[in-house]
Amino acid sequence: MKKKYSSKSRVVINIIMDNGQNVHLPFEPLTGGGSYYTTDNEEMQRAIECNANYGKTFVGEEVHDEPAPTTVVEDHADAALKPVKVSSIEDAKDYLAEHFSYSRTKLRSRAAIIAAGEEHGIEFIWD
């Protein structure tokens, strides 16, 4: 179980683990003020909750992770992108430069070429 500890101010605490080790925990600052620390380590949670300032300077609560959104991948036949066959990265750069006035220097990687094509409704089919 994951827990999030939060404070209205910026907090740094020291905790003592079960094995006697001292651990220095700086809470992460929040933009609007305050700070937080999140952990799923149960030993660390017990040590944090034994800190003298727990419940005074900072409090804890369980965090329930929400599932990641599902990504829908469209079938090639349903895609709105126009397929364009190219034999190399250079051919794809030439196509973008000729049809959409792209600067070849901005198209340095295959990912950049694919993204530029998608912006204009093009899907490159590599031979």
Your description of this structure?
With about 130 residues, the protein is an alpha+beta fold. It folds into two domains: about 1-65, no CATH class; about 80-125, no CATH class. Helices cover about 25% and strands about 30% of the residues. It is built from three helices and eight strands. A hairpin with a 5-residue loop joins strand 4 (about 30) and strand 5 (about 35-40).
Secondary structure topology:
Blueprint: E1 2-7, E2 12-16, E3 22-26, E4 28-29, E5 35-39, H1 42-49, E6 58-63, E7 82-86, H2 89-100, H3 110-119, E8 122-126
Parallel strand pairs: 7-8
Antiparallel strand pairs: 1-5, 1-6, 2-3, 4-5
Helix pairs in contact: 2-3
Key attributes of the depicted protein:
24% helix; 127 residues; 3 helices; two-stranded antiparallel sheet; alpha+beta
Order of helices and strands: EEEEEHEEHHE
Percent helix, as a range, is 10-25%
Radius of gyration: 26 Å
Distance between the termini: 49 Å
Biggest sheet, spatial arrangement of strands = 4-5-1-6
Number of helices: 3
Give a count of the beta strands, DSSP E runs of length 2 or more: 8
Choose one word for the global shape: rod-shaped
Q: Kindly state the mean pLDDT as a whole number?
A: 85
Helix/strand-derived class?
A: alpha+beta
Task: Please outline the major beta sheet.
Answer: 4 strands, antiparallel
The parts where pLDDT drops under 50 for at least 5 residues are: 70-74
Number of domains: 2
The percent range for strand residues is 25-35%
